[in-house]
Design brief:
This protein is an alpha/beta fold. It is built from 7 helices and 6 strands.
């Protein structure tokens, strides 16, 4: 809804944010929230779309009018549409779609330096997911575990400050 974006943008005038949100109503809330800060919306690319895998949560959401006209973007489409060459910090909370978006060989993961990600246990093997992140050159820092087996983790690419 823009809280993380506002925090990121407040860290400096050169910060640029690409936000991906398929919900029309959440896009409106995001614009109002970020728009409260002069100049912030000028540094945001807000894409009304979905990325990653099409799991049960996504299928359920797509049945709602709030999500139904939201296109699905591949890694290549997201990279091209947002003009990405490098991602300094990726915040990922995509309700199970993270298993596909950040799969082995992911172009998004390859250009990312730091990650904060929620990994949903209902969508796959959380331990295997974390191991794959390590195998892609990341050091995993704090991990917060939920009762259902899901986790939120922070990670940084080895060799990056």
């Amino acid at each position: 809804m823009g809280n993380f974006t506002n925090l990121a943008l407040s860290s400096g005038p050169k910060v640029r944010v690409v936000a991906v949100e398929p919900s029309q109503s959440l896009n409106e809330i995001f614009r109002r929230s970020v728009g409260q800060n002069p100049g912030f919306l000028d540094r945001v690319t807000l894409l009304r779309c979905s990325v990653g895998g099409l799991g049960p949560k996504q299928k359920e959401a797509l049945a709602s009018p709030d999500y139904s006209e939201s296109p699905w973007l591949s890694d290549d489409d997201l990279i091209a549409t947002a003009g990405l060459a490098r991602i300094d910090f990726l915040k990922c909370d995509i309700e199970g779609s993270e298993f596909e978006l950040l799969a082995k060989g992911s172009k998004i993961l390859a250009m990312t330096r730091k990650i904060a990600c929620e990994v949903h246990a209902f969508a796959g093997d959380v331990d295997a997911f974390l191991e794959r992140i390590r195998s892609e050159g990341f050091e995993i820092g704090p991990v917060e575990c939920a009762v259902d087996g899901s986790v939120i983790f922070l990670a940084r690419r080895l060799g990056c400050a």
